[in-house]
Amino acid sequence: MKRNLSRKQLEELGINRPLDDNVKIYCPRDIAEFYPVRPRNSHKGTFGSANIIAGSDSYAGAAALSVSAALKSGCGYVKLTTAPEVKNALVAHYPQTIFLRTPDLTSNAIAVGMGCGATEELYETVKNLLENYNGTLIIDADGLNALSKFGKDILKQKSCKVILTPHAKEFSRLTGLTVEQITASPIETARDFASEYKVVLLLKGAATVICDGSQKEIKTALNVRGSSALARAGSGDMLSGYLCGSSARGLNPFDACVCATYTMGLAAELASKQKTDYCATAEDILKKIHLAVKRLTTQNPSVRI
After folding, report:
1. Which H/E stretch holds residue 98?
2. φ, ψ for residue 110 (rounded to 5)?
3. What does each C-alpha distance from 89 to 64, 84, 93, 283 come to in angstroms?
């Protein structure tokens, strides 16, 4: 649903130009449609499987945050492909998670890059997924940095649906544009890249821009939910995990991005209201996801809570 924002509201969100008619801003009732009634007669396979590829010796927390969010997304299985030392640190804390040595290409959605290190090995993993996987692939963090470092044109030879989730600095590395150029025209630069590489681009910011360039007619959405509690390390890891789980349970890439950013933004608002923007941590936001989903599903009378 298109919602009008004042010029002042847009400027506070870092948008310095009026929105065109093709930019959608969603309301709670719109998001409720992404949380349909779950059939009572169902099983784990009904709700899909998500495979998180994340973590390294220095960044075990990235894997933990991604998995935590994915487990709250409503998908049936969450798998974590990670380094042995990360598995050893996390396995007792996440007994619901399936720990793997290699990616599972039978998964409905895969998210890769969070805390992995922008290595050539990771680049080869991303390349292999692009060529051989046929589900929804989310590339985040070091996955994006590896593309910038070793070559992003592999995005043009893909067999899967692709979502990229950069913040402005990561997008600067990908495009060669300065952060100032991107923040001056976030919608236009996101559309251009999404269209050229035929991907869904989720450009994170105070107002997150979501563009679907995989279709002939580019779809664009702007998420304005959230708080400055998200402006800290770990927020992107949580978003990628929740996005992976949302894709795994059946949402198309564009809708999954809209649903995940809105839900995580609302969870951050709830955490900030209780703990303040200063004190709310990633863990506090994770603990508010269920309240955000409950609030959203009450907007849809057909949803059973």
Report:
1. strand 98-100
2. -130, 135
3. 9, 9, 8, 17
List, in order, residues 6 or more apart from 98 with CB less than 8 Å away. 77, 78, 79, 80
**Two structure tokens written together for 127:** 């390349």
Residue 145: pLDDT over 90: yes
Q: What distance, in Å, lies between the first and last C-alpha atoms of the chain?
A: 24
- Is residue 305 pLDDT above 50, yes or no? no
CA 154 to chain centre: 21
pLDDT per residue as tens digits for the range 224-273: 999 999 999 999 999 999 999 999 999 999 999 999 999 999 999 999 99
Q: Is 212 helix (H, G, I), strand (E, B) or coil?
A: strand
The SS3 of residue 176 is: coil
- Within 45-200, residue ranges assigned H as helices are 60-71, 84-90, 120-132, 142-150, 168-175, 179-184, 186-197
Quote the CA–CA distance of 234 and 143 in Å, as a whole number: 15
Residue 120 class from Cβ within 10 Å (0-12 exposed, 13-18 middle, 19+ buried)? exposed
C-alpha separations of 3 from 21, 22, 261, 266 in Å? 10, 11, 17, 17
DSSP-derived 3-state class of residue 81: strand
Closest CA to 207 of 12, 43, 58: 12
Three-state secondary-structure class, residue 208: strand
Mean pLDDT of 62-75: 98
The alpha carbon of 75 is separated from its chain's Cα centroid by a whole number of angstroms, namely: 15
Classify each residue of 283-304 as buried b or exposed e, where b means 16 or more C-beta atoms within 10 Å of its C-beta: ebbbbbbeebbebbbeebeebe
